[in-house]
Amino acid sequence: MTEHDPSKRQFLRDIVEIGKGVLGVTALAPLIGCGPNAFQSKEPIEKLRMGSVYLFLINTNPDIKEISRIAGLPGEYGHIELVYRGLAYGSEDGNCRKISISDLERKFEGLDYEVREVELANPYKAIQHFSQVLTKKPYNNPAEMIMDMYIGSGKPLHGVYPVSIETVDRTNDKLREILESKGIPTNRTGQVYLPDQFKHVGWHLGEGVFRADKR
Questions:
Q1: Residues 143/160, Cβ–Cβ less than 8 Å
Q2: Are residues 30 and 64 in the same domain?
Q3: 3-state SS of 86-107?
Q4: What is the average pLDDT value for the chain, to the nearest integer?
Q5: Range 143-148 contact pairs with CB under 8 angstroms and sequence separation of 24 or more
Q6: Burial bucket for residue 35 (CB in 10 Å: 0-12, 13-18, 19+)
Q7: Domain that holds residue 173
Q8: Is 74 strand, coil or helix?
Q9: Are residues 128 and 171 in the same domain?
Q10: Mean pLDDT lowest for which of 22-26, 99-103, 138-142?
């Protein structure tokens, strides 16, 4: 068989199909001249497990990132979503909403993201709390919504504390203007949650870029 012989190509396809079941994809790759990553997705969004819970930190909303920097945080991320069983839970335009992973990719196409695998005490209760309680409340801050989902799961998230910006708000015109333009309340106590605060929650799964065209 020559290199471009159709019978050789068919032979290789047959070997691949047989090897998938016997050896597994990773072990098979070197046998057909491919690297170990040839069959593995490079995007963490493709590695999500159906029963696990994830936080997506998204590089968008420059104003929110500016608030984070003013508050002493890195200012890397301006939005956050909770993902569970193929659905993304977030808030926008003052309301909570859930969308599919495909819609999430289309909505934020071309933007950088970080995925963190996290634990909820009871994911079912968290989703139930989202549907029955949170969707009936106005939310302009998705980070606060995430914290409330943790509460709804039966166990609040420890290690993430609201940023106190009451004093900064009184002395920083830029911050006050951003908060007012975004309609973000300071939790009635001069405190607010920001996406950057979740960078150390759970386990780092990876970073990537949303690409709607790959599906």
A1: no
A2: no
A3: CEEEEEECCEEEEEEHHHHHHH
A4: 81
A5: 143/80, 143/192, 143/193, 143/194, 143/195, 143/197, 143/198, 144/187, 144/192, 144/193, 145/89, 145/90, 145/91, 145/96, 146/55, 146/80, 146/82, 146/193, 146/198, 147/193
A6: exposed
A7: 44-214
A8: coil
A9: yes
A10: 22-26
Per-residue pLDDT tens digits for 155-180: 999 999 988 766 555 556 777 677 77
Nearest to residue 95, comparing CAs of 150, 153, 57, 142?
Answer: 142
Token pair of 131, please? Answer: 């549907």
Domain CATH code at residue 197: 3.90.1720.10
**Residue showing tokens 């909770």:** 82
pTM: 0.74
Question: Tell me: the pLDDT tens digits for 178-204?
Answer: 777 777 665 555 678 999 999 999 999
Pairing of strands 79-84, 112-118: unpaired
β-strands 79-84, 95-100 pairing = unpaired
52 and 3 share one domain: no
Q: Sort 141 into a burial class: Cβ within 10 Å, 0-12 / 13-18 / 19+.
A: buried
Alpha-helical regions (H) of 136-213: 142-152, 166-171, 173-182
Shared domain check, 147 and 87:
yes
State whether 6 and 111 are in the same domain.
Answer: no
26: which 2 tokens? 């990773």
- What angle, 0 to 180 degrees and rounded to 10, lies between the N-to-C axes of helices 123-132 and 142-152? 120
The reply to whether 106 and 12 lie within a common domain is: no
Q: What's the total number of domains in the chain?
A: 2
